[in-house]
Amino acid sequence: MVTEYKEGSVGAELGQREFKVVGTRPPRPDGVDKVTGRALFGADLTAPGMLHATILRSPHAHAKIVSIDTSAALAMDGVKAVVTSDDFVKQGGSGNQDTLDNCMARGKVFYDGHAVVAVAATSVMVANAALKLIKVEYEILPHETDVDAAMLDSAPVLHAGRKFRNIPEGNNANVSGFWEFGHGDIDEGFAKADIIVERSFKTAATHQGYIEPHATLATMGPDGRGEIWVSTQGHYMVRDLSAAFVGMETSQLRVTAAEIGGGFGGKTTVYLEPVALALSKKSGRPVKMVMTREEVFRASGPTTSSSTDVKIGMTKDGRITAGQAKPRYQGGAYPNITAMLGAMTAFASYDLEAVQTQAWNVLTNRPKQAAYRAPGAPMAIYTVESVIDELCQKLDLDPIEVRLMNAAKKGTLSSYGPTFDEIGLVATLEAAKAHPHYAAPLGPNQGRGVSCGFWFNFAGNTSVSMGINEDGTVSVIEGNPDIGGSRASISMMAAEELGIPFDKVRTIVGDTNSIGFNDVTDGSRVTFSVGLATIKAARAAIQNMCGRAAQVWGIDADAVDWVDGAAVPTGHNAGEFPPMTLAEIAADSAKTGGPIAGHHEVNADGAGVSFGVHLVDVEVDPETGFTEIKRYTVFQDAGKAIHPDYVEGQMQGGAVQGIGWALNEEYIYGEDGKLQNAGFLDYRIPVASDLPMIDAVILEIPNPGHPYGVRGVGETGIVPPLAAVANGVSHAAGVRMSELPMSPPRILAAIDGAK
Amino acid sequence: MSKIHVSTSINGDAVEYLCDPSETLLDVLRNRVGLTGAKEGCGSGDCGACSVELDGRLVCSCLVLAAEAEGKEVSTVEGMADGEKLHVLQQKILDHAALQCGVCTPGILVAAKALLEKNPDPTETEVRYWLAGNLCRCTGYDKIIRAVMDAAAEMRGA
Amino acid sequence: MVKVNLWGSLRSATGGLTEVEVDAKNTGEMLKALAKKYPALELIIEGGVSVAIDGQIYKEAWFTPIKPDSEVVLMPYMKGG
Fold it and tell me: Best of B28, B85, B125, B138 to disrupt the A interface by mutation (most A CBs within 10 Å)?
């Protein structure tokens, strides 16, 4: 369901443009390949003479590597190459060195599953047999996997001697990041409150849970030139890091993005790619590497776990007087900025006079966290939205009215610094309030939860190139792996701008040698940034085509306009000529100056923030503690929805990942620091029978920063469900859950505890 | 270790292969027969991305030994379309935009086909429980369920 | 002169200030001037920052003009998933 936006200055102007292709729902161009099994994902490619490589991983949570003896493995029949951290080039920046050390442990292993040695052999079976012959001597060290415990002075130190910037006195050596945001006088704000609620919350680490494990095929010849085929969110990133890690120039490494079987942020870094490349370099043969699901859980991804203190003051009529949040996140053994993003987003939905957030990132003996859809925001906003809900309960106020009263709008000084431009939170809340779901009756043991959510959305470096073919069709090359239907939306925007039908355009994701650099597919940036560059590339091609028509007509290029896919003379002295269509201009292109193309390169800005509001009805079984999702509605400010099916898909998919985070998903570590549930049986992501239909209501509040008003939509959807479900549970079961996931035993314990 | 010779039928074609006693049907389909439509998402029967039919029974091919296919009929996603004409389920998945990354799609299609062969008029709940063994992380299942229900309706009408 | 708002934890680099003034006509000049005036900010700026001008967040656009009355906020480098 798409709701057009009618009011607002910039938005209204943008909203008046009449689109022909944008806003329709054509079949996606890669669809047939994906329903027939023809689409080639990361693990689907083979090369002649290909070897298979597997990895020996640490069985310890924290240990010094005393020695590695690979001689017996190398001597085994069928083994062609072995690599350890010694086979890679030391990096200048600490960020890249951390990524490399995570690919192949250097000196120490930091978590259960940390890669230590890789072996390439004639088959997976031979490679795995060879791993058993490798002797690694470890000196086991004490470990810690809990964020609060890792902050204690008694905690084992992971990176002794390493200095992290801007860490205030009083923090131990595991604190790798500290950030503070906010404005106003927080004490004065709390003094104005009629009621203050202060609570502490915990959320478990969850995994992105893409169904396709990491997979790559790398080849490098004695000439020093390499190729990588890989399932990734960013093949330029894979190129740059892999080339740097094996010590080659980027131009000598061509990386092609496979079809990607899900990423959600988890494929924005490298794990296998540099290793496969190094093994290929050593063996002189193509090397394929595919993670098992257990490896995916133990050694890739997860998001941070969190522990957060929140304090909010409110007047008795529902105005928030002050908000304070102190999120502490652990993201494994290497530094990251997820806690910072949590601190920035925690109160972003609200117009506050006094707000303060302080965030800590803490190192623990867990895998290096990877970005997960709106990284940092879901857990921070869960804590704030839970406390606001409790305040509404205590003051007997309507939760949407209270949010409306405090909602951020144009001109609000945001909790993270800048003043908001045109944003859609109020419209989104109004839509939720007016929706039949909000007024529907509830049954016994049922409760309704509400939560707001926010994500920045990012833009960034983008290159697009398009060729106008002689038969009047258009070939577009972009450089961002298509993770959820972006080739469809890019083709639609090209068709819209050029004034031709959707099916005349084919968009492909080019390899790293096809076009200029592109940032990773992340931050909900692709439809916005690649769309922007596509529109600009189309305009460059249009300018060229107008020039051709002007020459044919013998008039000034300035006197030619582009209307509905054709050049037309315009102005008083232009003369009378029938429109010259794109196909006609293209057919004669060889005679009028050669091939016609358009390209655009930009470090895009202006992505436009996005807000969402989720409504959920849950039913809690008081005997088992099991929570069933009865009804779910997502409202999101999506800007202009290019292909509404895929906008809805992002909203629905994000909501369900958030439901999983709220109810079931968690990394469980034993006392020994080993991950105990490294499989889909024990790490339970939502299945079809867990869920009702997820209604998606798109609010189109156009983004002034994009020619068509596009905003990113991919990430916001995962933010509200954690609190929405928790708030629903608190109304259904009468218990306020302060720890995620709200698995049946936890809910049951809370119900029993409240008796 | 000596290999096992297997004669089987895959999507109606007679196929022979040699396999290791420990090799799974999924490995053989992907690595020896060249049919990469079935995907390995977990290798433990939890995700359903490798779903195929074996003598009409829906199985996770990662849990079937390749040697077990001897004398049986294997149906994979590659066998669903009839030349250029897509199976109704394939068309409905496209019409409803019921895929995002598409890696679970082959398994969902094979599983849904097996359901409709047994139960041409399933309720939404029946579809949800039948597909509970096929994990999709992108869509939240909404559009998939709609596509399968719509396909069932069309197939009943046809 | 432009007023630049800094995120709270940068106070340690500016002697306790979260609002500082530098002479600059665009973001590149502003970042250079900040690093010169507050040497402790140099490493942070080199490590990557974002700049919000009148509500719009820019990653590394040196030539984005800043008007004297613009709202300028120095923000950490951010990344999504």
Answer: B138
In a domain, A493, yes or no: yes
Chain C residue with Cα closest to A233: C81
Q: C80 vs A265: CB contact, 8 Å cut-off?
A: yes
**Does a structural domain hold residue A500?**
yes
- C in contact with B (at least 3 C-beta pairs within 8 A): no
**Per-residue pLDDT tens for A99-145?**
999 999 999 999 999 999 999 999 999 999 999 999 999 999 999 99
In this structure, the answer to whether residues A596 and A739 fall within a common structural domain is: no
Query: Could you tell me the CA-to-CA distances from A185 to A191, A419, C15 in Å, in that order?
Result: 10, 18, 19
- Name the CATH architecture for the domain at C2-76: Roll (3.10)
Nearest-by-Cβ selection for A689 from B46, B132, B143 = B132
Q: Closest to B93 (Cβ–Cβ): which among A35, A485, A649?
A: A35
> What is d(CA A343, CA C7) in angstroms, rounded to the nearest whole number?
11
Q: Which residues on C lie below 8 Å from A457 (Cβ)?
A: 80
Residues A450 and A585 in one domain: no
Q: How many residue pairs bridge chain A and chain B with CB atoms within 8 Å of each other?
A: 187
Asked if residue A15 is part of any domain, the answer here is no
- Structural domain that includes position A80: 43-142+223-285
User: Of the candidates A556, A589, A604, which is a domain's last residue?
Assistant: A604
A495 and A428 fall within a common domain: no
Tell me: do A439 and A565 sit in the same domain: no
A460–C59 CB contact, under 8 Å: yes
Question: pTM for this structure?
Answer: 0.97
Architecture of the CATH domain B4-79: Roll (3.10)
Whether B11 contacts chain A with CB within 8 A: no
Backbone angles phi, psi at A605, to 5 degrees: -130, 175
Query: Which residues are within 8 A (CB) of A284 and not within 5 positions of it... i.e. 6 or more apart?
Result: A221, A222
- Chain A positions touching C8 (Cβ under 8 A) are 179-182, 356, 358
Q: Verify whether the Cβ–Cβ distance C12 to A168 is below 8 Å.
A: yes
The distance of Cα A139 from the centroid of its chain, to the nearest Å, equals: 37
CB neighbourhood size of B64 (10 A): 21
Task: Cite the residue boundaries of each domain of chain B with CATH code 3.10.20.30.
Answer: 4-79
**Share in percent of chain C as helix, strand, coil (round to 5):** 30, 30, 40
CB contact under 8 A, B133 and A691: no
pLDDT in tens, A11-69: 444 556 899 999 999 999 999 999 999 999 999 999 999 999 999 999 999 999 999 99
Q: Do A35 and B36 touch (CB under 8 A)?
A: no
Fold (topology level) of B88-157: DNA polymerase; domain 1 (1.10.150)
C44-73: pLDDT as tens digits: 898 889 999 998 888 878 999 999 999 999
Whole-angstrom Cα distance, residue B49 to residue B45? 9
CB A375 within 8 A of CB A455: no
Q: At A219, is the secondary structure helix, strand, or coil?
A: strand
Q: Tell whether A206 is within 8 A of chain B (Cβ).
A: no
- CB crowding A662-698: b at 16 or more within 10 Å, else e: bbbbbbebeeebbbeebbbeebbbbbbebbbbbbbbb
Q: Which tokens is A505 given?
A: 């355009």
Residues 112-171 of A with CB under 8 A from B: 125
